[in-house]
Each structure stands twice: as structure tokens, then as C-alpha cells.
Amino acid sequence: MIEYDPVIYSRILTALTLGFHVIFATIGVGIPLMIAIAEWMGIRRNDPHYTLMARRWARGFVITVAIGVVTGTAIGLQLTLLWPSFMQAAGHTIGLPMFMETFAFFFEAIFLGIYLYTWDRFKSKWKHFLLVIPIVIGATASAFFITSVNSFMNVPQGFNIVDGVLTDVSPLAAMFNPATPTKIAHVIITCYLTSAFILGAIAAYHIIKGNAHVYHKKALHLTMVSAFVFAIGTALIGDLSGKYLHEYQPEKLAAAEWHFETEAEAPLILGGILTEDNEVKYALEIPYALSILAGGSPDTVVVGLNDFDEEYLPPLWVHYAFDLMVFIGIYLAAVSAIFVFINWTKKWNAFTKPLLWAVVAGGPLSMIAIEAGWFFTEVGRQPWILNGVMTVSEGATTSQHVDILLYVFVVLYAILGVTCVVVLRRMFKTNPVERELEKRGISHTGSRIAK
Amino acid sequence: MDYEIIGITVLWTFLYGYLIVASIDFGAGFFSYYTKITKKNHITHNIIQRYLSPVWEVTNVFLVFFFIGIVGFFPSTAYYYGTALLIPGSVAIILIAIRGSYYAFATYGAKDSNFYSFLYGATGLLIPASLSTVLTISEGGYVSVEDGKVQLLYGELFTSLYSWGVVILAIVSVLFISASFLTYYASRAKDLDALELLRKYALVWAFPAIIMGVVVFFLLGNQNPEHYQNMLDIWWVFAVSFINFAIATYLIWKRKNYGTAFILVMLQYFTAFYGYGISHFPYLLYPYLTIYDGFTNETMAIALIIAFIAGLLLLIPSLYLLMRLFLFDADYVKGKK
């Protein structure tokens, strides 16, 4: 047994809650956009298949929203309960974006309720479509605001500390710090990418199981085209994130890359393992790539780990999380590109089993990449809770009993996760597409682009 | 006006908003379960579902708004309340998590399950009990601060008449507010069976609610004499509250003007809640923290107030749309849409 230490337990409990929440938060940000695209396609092409797609996605989405909302409430309260000193400092500096995030959430909540219950209420289909726009805006805006809070933790600015007292606070400078643009862009686009892949994986799975209905083919095509666009965006923003890290958090970049010596023409290290005396083994080295990633040219000097105070270095295993994220990102881009290309040439059939399985695997993999990415960025900031200002142990609660709470929350999330899967499966199994199409009087061939 | 006053007024208003919408929601969950086990579910099911389904998520936001807002306006509360409330706060989180997700599972999922509605109904009564701890400890006497270390005194909390009084008051108020709203909603829907049943619930819970209100008022005299004295100084506010209650109950009893009756119930709690809040002034946590020493810096205060006004400009039309579509649309309420 580890000795009771509120700091350790608070860290684990926060990681657990956020790790669980991020699954539903990612879906919560991305899926509204996919629903909007599907409904828009349905109206534009006058194709009821897409409209039904939007409807079915929305129905499943509500279940995940519920868990997203309750775990979001949980982390909101837990921040105060587990990190009282941090929240005291944060309240002074980034109370604004936290406050605005709840506005965005409020806005989304109102329109989600309306959207779900007005499918057949308006004469004009566009009117109902308009209702999904505030949901997309609200979902993306909450990601925007809450990520700016996290950016602040990476590059705290917009205040001075004079004798331990905060002065000259500028809420906007705190919100729009150097980490904000890349972080927000990266978070939002990967939420879109992940959601597209998860919905694509469901469609691909149905086709593999022998369900050749044109509905699933349309769903797969729509999601893969979207995923391809988002994957390109992710790659571009990923490059900018590298340049940001180089400039503002070089120790995080160096830890991610196991880059020990400060040098120009630094190579990028992919994979590999680190021995106890800090030797990199079995890794793939790409010459100059790290310098190019960091500064855009091979002669950029990248600061190495040896130049930092060892006390303030993050653990070096973040390299694995970083690589996992990058590898999966490349995989997702490749799979969606191949699918879109084959479908576009019309010479080959894109609906072959190996490619479909690759899409199915992309669903859970994309979520693993999200988790890996967050673990990299959060652990890569250790030992700071506010980079360079407050360490994690200074921010934690002094309360007893955090250990018991950890166990209770493990059980809670396990139960919620399992029930969520069971309910979603049951929901779609008892009401398959074919039956719903029939019930709504939509013919199987009633579409222009049937393949 | 001081920024501190604006800040606490904004927060208090949101807490009041939460008190009303959450009470309706929590009570509805309980009635929904209760009618199920007493085999009267068919009477109330439609009314409750038609109201709750589009708004359950909105209810939750009021709470989030309050606790994020208080950290924004009064960052020091994070330190005191955050440390002291680790256990009660976590209990509330767990209950809210169970309630929210199982509501969605039961309503949007495929299966109507007794177990789900039990979880939904039971947590609806336990959440107000666990959340009311915050108000209880704000009176002082339940928290010790030594060498800057904040601790909640569980022994004091669990053996105190006042803290139990608040818990019971919270629960009976939830049931009363909820039943009087649902009575009104059923009358809008012209659902006479549901109206009869819910009206009966409203009358049944009216008296425990008012009696507990009076009891807690006097129990506070022991717990925090200073606060009690402040309350006596503005006794007329509580008298107004009582009159609102009396007229509301009379109207429900006489089967007329259910809409007015519900507004009076809202006013009853509005006056009592603000009277309580104003007499608590200026303490956030007696005697350690006042609104002045816990307040954020001026720049942040202005930024928050601007954000708040901008946010309201966005929210009020949206909320109006929500209510027009689901609360005041006669055809929807009657189940025709």
C-alpha cells in the first residue's frame, strides 16, 4: 500500500474523472457537427436517408450527453474540492472563461432540448435545421473556453505576483495566452475527427456484418470524407503545436522526444524504449525532423533535457503517449484518405472487408489517441499545476479521505460506462434502420446517389 | 453599488433559480416513482415526462453556474468550502451523476425499468439533502480553522438539530414546490385525473413545508444568534412570504387559478430565500469569510459582470423560446405535438 498522501490521490482521482469525462466530452463536441452535416445533406439533396441519419445519431447522442453532463458537473465540483488553493488562484485569473463556459453549456442545453423534441413540429425542414446550429456553436464554444483555462495552466500570464499577492490581473491576457490558439484548434479539430471516425466505425461494422443497405454506405461515405478533411486540419495544427512547444514549453517537447543534448539539426525519435541510463534503443530516427517541427528549418537549435533543472522535468514516459497519439493520427489520416480516394476513382470498390475493418478499428483508436494526447499534455506539465507558478502539491487539498472517494468514483464510472454501452446497444438493436425506414415510409431506392 | 453586492446578488439569484427548477425536477422524479409503485403511474406519467424531457439538462446548468460563479466572484470560497466539503460535495456529485444518467437511460433508452425510476426518485430527495449542507455550514459552528487548515466537524454536523431541520425543510419544500407546479401544468393540459392527484400532493406537502420553515427559523436562533437577530429585524419579509403561502394554498384548495398559485409559491420562496440571504450578509462563511475579504480583483469582477450581462442577452430569448415551445404551448402540453 502507498502511504496516504492527498496529493497523489487527488491526482489519480482527477485523472480518472477527466479521463472518463473526455470520452463523452469529445463526442459531445464533435457529434453535433456531424448531425448538422447529415441533416443539411438530407435537406439539400432531398434525401430522407441523411435526415434519418441525423435523427438516429441525435438519439444516441443524448445518452452520451447525459454522461458528459454529469461527469462535467463532477469535474467542475471536484476541481474546487480537490484543488482548493489552485481554484482560489484560478478564480482570480481565469474566472472569466470558466464562467463563459457555463454560458455556452447553458445555450447548448436549451437548444438540445428543443431540437430533440421538434423533429416533426415545423412545416419547414430548414427551421428545424436552424436549431442544431446553436448546439454546434454551444458545444464548440464550451471546448473553446475550457481549453483556454487549460492553456492558462500551461502558460500562466495576465497577472503579477507581488509578495504572494496577485495584482494587475488582466482576464483577457490570461485567456488568450500563447498556448490558446494551437491548443484550442487542436482540441476542437480532433473532437471532430474522433466523432467522425466513431460514427464511421458503426457504419462500417454494419456493412461488415452483411448489412448492405445504402443507408450505411451513405453514412460511411459522409463520415470518411469529413474525417479526411479533419485529419488534414489535425496534421497542420499539430505542426503549429510543435512550434508552440519549442518556444514556450521546451522541456515538454524535449521530454516528448527524449531529446537530451541541445543541438541544431535535431532528429525526431519515433518509438523505441528508454534504458535506465537514458539511452534510447530500438527507435526510428528521422534526421532533422525535430528541428523542422520546432522551428521550420533544420538549423533550429532545440534545447535538450540536460539543460533543464532535473527537479522541474516531467517524467520521460510521456514520449510513449506522444508517439501513440501521433501514430494513431497518421493512421486515421491514411485510412480516411484511402477510403475517399478509392470511392472517388470509382474503379475499385471501397467497401472491402480489410478497409472496413480498418475503419472499425479507427473508432476506438481515435479515442485512445485523445486520451494519450491529454495524458501527454497534462503529465508533460509536471510538476506544475500552473506552469512555473504553482506546483501540483501546493494546489492540492489537505483533506483526509480522498482515497476512499477514489474507490467510490472508480465504481461509479464503471457502472455508468457499462450501462451506457448496454443502453446504446439495446436502443439501436431493437430499432434497426430497416424498420425505422419502413415505419417512416422511406423507400430503399428512393435516392439519387445510391451506389 | 459595490461589485461585491452585485456579485453575491447574481449568485444568489442563480441559486434561487436552481431552487425552483431543481425542486420541480427532483419532486417530479419522486412523484414519478411513487405513483409507479402505487400503480397510479398511468395518471401522471405523461404530464411529468412531457415537462421534464426537454428541460432536464437546463436544470443542471443552474447548479454549475452557481458553483463556477462563486469561484469566479469569491475565489476564497474555493479554499474554505472546497476543503471542508470534500465528502458532502462528493456525495452530491455521485447522486447527481446517478440521477442524470439514469434519467436519460430511462427516458431516451429503450427500456422502462423500475430500478431506473427508483434511482431517479430516491436521488431526487437525497440531492437537496446533501446540497443543503452548504447552507448549514455557512452558519458557523461546523467548521474549524486551525493554522490555516480547514476541517468540517462531522460530529457537530450530524448531532445538530439545526442541520437536520434544514435537511427536512429542503425535502418537504422540494415536494411542495414540485407538486404545486405540476398541478398547474396538469391544469394547462386539461388532464383532470393528473390534476386531482397532483393537487392532493400539493396540499399534503404544503403544511410540512411551512411548519419546517418556521421550525428552522427558530432553530437558527441557537445556531447563530447574530444571524437570527438580523432576521428578526426584517421580520416583515418573512411575513410576506407566509401570506404568499397562505393565498397559494387557499387557491389550490379552492381549485382555482393554479397559475397564480404557483407564482405565489415562487414568491413565497423568493422572499424567504432573499430574506435569509440578506440577513446572512456580509458573511459567506460565518465568522471566517465575508463577501469583502473573499472577493476577486476589480478587473475580474468587471469582466465577469460584462460576461454575465452578455450571457443573459443570449439566454433570456433562448429560455423564452424553450418555454414558449414546451411550457406555454397548449397543444404540446396536451400531448398533441
From TrEMBL, chain A:
One annotated GO biological process: aerobic electron transport chain
GO cellular component, one term: cytochrome complex
Topology relative to the membrane: Multi-pass membrane protein
One GO MF term: metal ion binding
Residue intervals passing through the bilayer: 12-40, 61-82, 94-117, 129-149, 184-207, 219-238, 317-342, 354-376, 404-424
Similarity comment text for this entry: Belongs to the cytochrome ubiquinol oxidase subunit 1 family.
Record-given protein name: Cytochrome bd ubiquinol oxidase subunit I
Organism expressing this protein natively: Evansella cellulosilytica (strain ATCC 21833 / DSM 2522 / FERM P-1141 / JCM 9156 / N-4)
Automatic annotation (TrEMBL), chain B:
Location (main, coarse): membrane
Localization per record: Cell membrane
Membrane topology, record value: Multi-pass membrane protein
Domain of life per record: Bacteria
Keywords: Cell membrane, Membrane, Transmembrane, Transmembrane helix
Residues that span the membrane, as ranges: 6-34, 55-74, 80-105, 117-137, 157-182, 202-222, 234-253, 260-281, 301-327
Protease found in the keyword field: no
Keyword Membrane applies: yes
GO cellular component: plasma membrane
Family: Belongs to the cytochrome ubiquinol oxidase subunit 2 family.
Name by which UniProt lists this protein: Cytochrome bd-type quinol oxidase subunit 2-like protein
